[in-house]
Specification:
The chain is α/β, with parallel strands linked by helices and 231 residues long. It has one domain (3-177): P-loop containing nucleotide triphosphate hydrolases (Rossmann fold, 3-Layer(aba) Sandwich), CATH 3.40.50.300. It has helices spanning 16-29, 45-49, 62-74, 88-97, 100-107, 121-134, 153-156, 159-166, 179-188, 192-197, 207-225; strands spanning 3-8, 34-38, 54-56, 78-82, 110-117, 139-145, 170-174. Helix 6 (121-134) packs parallel to helix 8.
């Protein structure tokens, strides 16, 4: 059945679009049918890096946001949605305005929310708010992004973690990719596939940087495979 993955991080700068790109690359590498929806006009990461699979939407416009569900209904596939920062209320307005939760259940479409975090106070607080807002209406996955922080002690001691456990949510640890390597990928506008496989031309990464990306993807996929969620 189809499954919609909302990738969010209410606090900006937590690496949300990196997670969206990672999931997109995993779908490509695993030959999982998917469609991507880019709601983050400020970065447009999925449009830029995975344009063949992606269309842009405006969450604040109902007709535009409806394309998220349309893509899930069009075929049995995963639908990946990259959300802008501070979008939980807009997303909730769309989901509740047409009772998308009930409609998705009737259509056999799963809903997951990926909460990307840097472990800071603002990020953890936003996760708590989102968990209270969406409750058990979606499957929750908290992403500890070690590319943004090494310290997640605030989350470990938080009400957000308690709520996550009560909702049978999952936690995944996203390993760090060397900052200079990630910068080069972004500078050249490369998908993760292109970063690994493009070996000539001005936009090619250095051989060891390509190796770092390959190893990083492998570690990320191991972590995602251990989640036991619909991917």
């Amino acid at each position: 059945m189809s499954h919609i993955h909302f990738v969010g991080g209410e606090k900006g700068g937590v690496g949300k679009s990196v997670v969206a790109r990672l999931l997109a690359q995993r779908f490509v590498d695993r030959s999982v049918p998917f469609a991507a929806v880019d709601g983050d006009a400020s970065s447009g990461a999925l449009v830029r890096y995975y344009g063949d699979f992606t269309q842009a939407v405006e969450l604040g416009a109902t007709d535009s946001a409806d394309q998220i569900m349309d893509r899930a209904l069009g075929a049995e596939r995963s639908v990946l949605v990259d959300l802008p920062a501070q979008s939980a209320r807009s997303l909730w307005g769309w989901l509740s305005g047409a009772n998308v939760f009930e409609f998705a259940r009737e259509m056999g479409i799963g809903l997951s929310f990926w909460h990307v975090s840097d472990g800071g106070f603002a990020s953890v607080s936003e996760i708590e708010r989102a968990l209270k807002l969406f409750e058990a209406k979606v499957q929750h996955i908290v992403v500890k992004n070690h590319g943004r922080s090494k310290d997640f002690s605030q989350f470990e001691q938080s009400e957000a973690k308690r709520l996550l456990a009560a909702l049978s949510g999952r936690i995944v640890e996203l390993p760090e990719l060397e900052a200079s390597t990630m910068y080069a990928i972004d500078r050249y506008g490369s998908s993760f596939w292109a970063a690994i496989n493009r070996s000539d031309g001005e936009t090619a990464l250095k051989p060891l940087d390509r190796q770092r990306v390959r190893m990083w993807l492998e570690r990320c996929y191991v972590a995602l495979d251990a989640l036991d969620v619909a991917l």
